[in-house]
Amino acid sequence: MQATKRFSATCIEQLCSEIEDSRGNEVFALGYLDDQGLVSRLVIRARGNKDSVLALQHWSGDADPSDDPSHAPDVLIHNHPTGYLVPSDEDLNIAGHAAEDGTGFFIVDNRVSKVYVVAEPARRRKRVLLDADTICAALEEGGSIARKLESYESRPSQLGLMRLIIQGFNENSMVAAEAGTGVGKSFAYLLPAMRYALENDERIVISTATINLQQQLYEKDIPLVNGTLEKSGQGPAVKAVLIKGRGNYLCHRRLGEALRETELFDDEKDDLERITAWAETTATGSRSDLSFLPAESLWSRVCSEADLCMGLRCPERERCFVLALRKEAADARILVVNHHLLFADLAARAEGAGYDSTVVLPPYTRVIMDEAHTMENAATSFFSKDFSRLSLYRQLGRLYRNRRAQRLGLLVRLAALSRQEDKLDDGAEAVQFIRDTADALDESALNFCRADGNFRLTPADESSIAAALTPLLLDLRKKISALAGLIRDMLETVPEDSVDDPTVWEIKSITRRLEAIGSVCGSFIEYQERPEEVMWIERHAGRGAAAKSTGADWAVFTVTPIDVAPALREALFEPNKTVVCVSATLTVADSFTYWMNRSGLGHTGTADPSDKAVLTGRFPSPFPYSRSVLLGVPRDAPLPDDASYRAFVDQAVTQLAETAGGSALILFTSYESLRSAFAAAAPVLEEQGIRCLKQGDDDRSRLLQAFLQDRTSVLFATDSFWEGVDAPGDTLRLVILCRLPFRTPNEPVFKARCEALENRGKSSFMELSLPESVMKFKQGFGRLMRRSSDHGVVAVLDGRLLHKRYGEFFLRSLPETGRSFGEFESLLREMERFLF
After folding, report:
1. Helices (H) and strands (E) in the chain — how many of each?
2. Number of independent structural domains in the chain
């Protein structure tokens, strides 16, 4: 073929010149196509000899970012000095790999008069860059979005955040943005994301930490943006799909199995019947659509689970809610997910599933992480592995149990299918052996947890661990392996026409789960050989006074990675073109360093070409903190290690809440302090008609609902209530932070992370304890002001804020407010004047 049919005249001249300068030897180049399909630009990558040349295909940084999203060339080009334009075996190998990404492969002669097309290039869709002015106009005064929002006020910080996110999309960069309360971050990322998805036909994943935000995005914000896109003539609606973990969806096949074993659900039979009736009418099969909340034990028997899914072999596949959702997601351009689900997908891809096919989610290359301050904790939870005797009991109960002199379970059904009823006694005995060993292990583990409620395995405790725990862990792993072997022997004799029986699928799944527990046992046994992980045991308490006397407490064995940043970097930041991380709390004293290092976005210190540009920006809240919030810290507050501290807190909480007339959220760092303050304050406050609510007396959602409905109530709460509480208006006018939220030093994972930092010559206090506490402190402070019209007081009862040098880190991380840093009595008077 004539080269003029594939190359522009300029490129022919350039390539001829390069070959001549290389004395006629082989030259390797990257080619970029113009709109007519001609190679119109070249980047020379290597020069060789008469017979070969290095095929350097790493193009990062060589191409103009406007060419295409990945900077990838359209064609790989090299010359054959002999003029014999037939590809060698090595040429074909390189061309085959390149073609997987749509890249073509050309061979030319030294005069570039002839070209042999080994592989045709896929015509790449030209990327459309976002116009920041056009998109921002929607949120400016009179804009298409602004007109639809009640009491809209232009927010410069929101527009600034949007411009940063647009830059991230246009430049294929990473983005870390701190957007204070009231900035309107959802619209700031939705408008660019939906516009980019529409213009470039790309899929974008939006991940959140809370179901509430997922629902708000999907049900409220996305439809509003879609409506404005359509009405303004900027394009059709962008299809969005809300995806939850598959455990949230009903499985028709498993429901049928449960119905056939109704004797297992004597106490839940009515709920099972209600689920059955609902299953015939629900469009989504999502548990959130149920009009009642079924017991977790019941729902776990009927929900969809990945390792129990029969896929296309399932007799109920035509009615499968998960398959229907996957079909919807396949042609959606916006996927609204949660962090745990996203990590499940990323982990599978990083472990070999690849990035070009559907795994948990359809393929994507751009991600928005909302509530990004929770990423490390979410990833830590996801990558941890655990088991307890109760979780082991659940799996064993699925395999075999006696009920009213009747043998039940998967082993009974497998024995019938495999025609090996004679092995059922062996299976029953193996199940009992595992239960007995689990009981003994649990009892021994609880002895280790007596002091702090948890125990971390360290070399210092080697002798006691070796004597009391290791033999039982070895025994449990051995007995699980024996039962798994017995089950596999029985599976081998299952007739060919029964291999797709649900019993076979379920028992294989249960076996894998048991073996995973055996694997955790192995990690505990080898704890000294796994310095990158923490092995720890935690006591979980049974409820009620009787539970203690009957030994209802149980131990949970957990394996947790010390550092999740490398996994996040490898799975999330490196493979994707754009990752936008946004939250109200990402900085400590104006710096992103702590969060970036913990999340995997921090610079590795290498010259790795995979390191991408990171754009950062802080966008302060538009709320009038300086006139609407009073920050009070009593100078005479004792330090937490002072013997008088608890009595001071108990008295201060009572007087502050009494002076404010209720409407208070009181946050603690321990249940012990909470109970003490509640016991002191509740009688005084309730005598004045102020309802007192305490965490632990009801589930979180009902407790919050009661607090929101009673404008003068006071809520005493701890850890989980430091964030996610949205109580605007007079419902909340006083937030009391009783103590700076430093992590308990004996918490196993935290302690291991501190030791890892110290071993690297770093200060665990400055690198981990202090910044982590500051970020949580900011979250607690942020509970007060949720709307621009809110007005109230944040009181901090920890003297360290004023008397320790590091207190300045906390104060610098807050917006400018009014301040009352005098004696406690002075704070009471100033607070009363400020509120009333």
Report:
1. 32, 25
2. 5
